[in-house]
Specification:
single chain; alpha+beta; nine-stranded mixed beta sheet; seven-stranded antiparallel beta sheet; 8 helices
Length: 289
């Protein structure tokens, strides 16, 4: 593991952030989870575009702009040295006074972490995950727009904790209206009548980079796809259900609240095709480092 901070790459034990940093105190900032495959950073420009937009929404200036963020990512990946890795690029509001006022922070802080990839165990991928519907609801766009990948992940963390305490692998988060939003750190997909469906951001779903790639791949494979509102009923009715995310990639779901759903065990035919195509795309494209 390597950490880029204050203009240099250091070991994790050497990385220091002030206790007065508003990212630490108030979750004020944005981040991107980014994957490297075969010595390339996957969809780096899309990640940087989302980071820049999220920062603009928060009135947070990216130090030296997007070009500097690109250099930070590539330098960190290069220092880590592994062809496959997970990167976490963080831009916080920076150090300021106690109190929520962002105007007391004169300069944002940039941190980039490179680590080895952690995947679900092979038996989980073969069997499929178990989801538990969280008692918590996903904040609406009028509270915190889900398209902003902010440092405020308390809602997600508590949902994940609740799911694990109930013996499930992941949480299913619903919107205030009871519609499917996402998992604690992944997008939700279902195959309904042969159509690949995923909730829209207006229902609380992050506009994920892996999600976007899968929708593109579905079009290339001739699989009909749509963004549309889903309920829990739809997940019980689906032929296949899976989660997607930068860290998780594509993971089948076999149970919801203790009941079988989707293929009931492992990946269904559409999921399998998307897994194969996604792996091929990820390992053949990207920004070399």
């Amino acid at each position: 593991m390597k950490v880029w901070i204050d203009g240099r790459v250091v070991e994790p034990a050497e990385a220091r952030v002030s206790a007065l940093d508003h990212g630490f105190l108030y979750g004020d900032g944005v981040f991107e989870g980014i994957r490297c495959y075969s010595g390339r950073v996957f969809r780096l420009e899309d990640h940087l575009r989302r980071l820049a937009t999220g920062a603009r929404v928060l009135a947070l200036e990216l130090p030296s702009g997007v070009d500097a963020m690109r250099r930070v990512v590539l330098e960190t990946a290069r220092a880590h040295g592994a062809p496959d890795a997970y990167l976490r690029l963080v831009v916080s509001r920076g150090e300021g006074e106690l109190g929520v006022d962002p105007t007391t922070c004169p300069a944002p802080r940039v941190v980039c972490i490179a680590a080895d990839v952690r995947l679900y165990p092979s038996e989980k991928l073969a069997e499929g995950l178990a989801l538990a519907t969280s008692s918590l609801r996903r904040p609406g766009p009028d509270v915190l727009d889900p398209r902003v990948k902010s440092l405020n992940y308390l809602n997600n963390a508590l949902a994940k904790l609740e799911a694990r305490q109930r013996g499930a692998d992941e949480a299913l988060l619903l919107s205030a209206a009871g519609h499917v939003a996402e998992a604690s750190a992944a997008n939700v997909f279902a195959v309904l009548g042969g159509v690949l469906v995923t909730p829209p951001p207006t229902d609380g779903a992050l506009a994920g980079i892996t999600r976007m790639t899968l929708l593109e791949l579905a079009g290339e494979l001739g699989v009909a796809s749509a963004e549309r509102t889903l309920g829990r009923f739809d997940l019980f009715d689906a032929e296949e259900v899976f989660l997607s995310g930068t860290g998780a990639r594509v993971v089948p779901v076999a149970r919801l609240d203790g009941r079988p759903i989707g293929a009931a065990r492992g990946a269904g035919p559409v999921t399998k095709r998307l897994v194969e195509e996604f792996d091929a795309r990820a390992r053949s494209t990207g920004t070399p480092f």
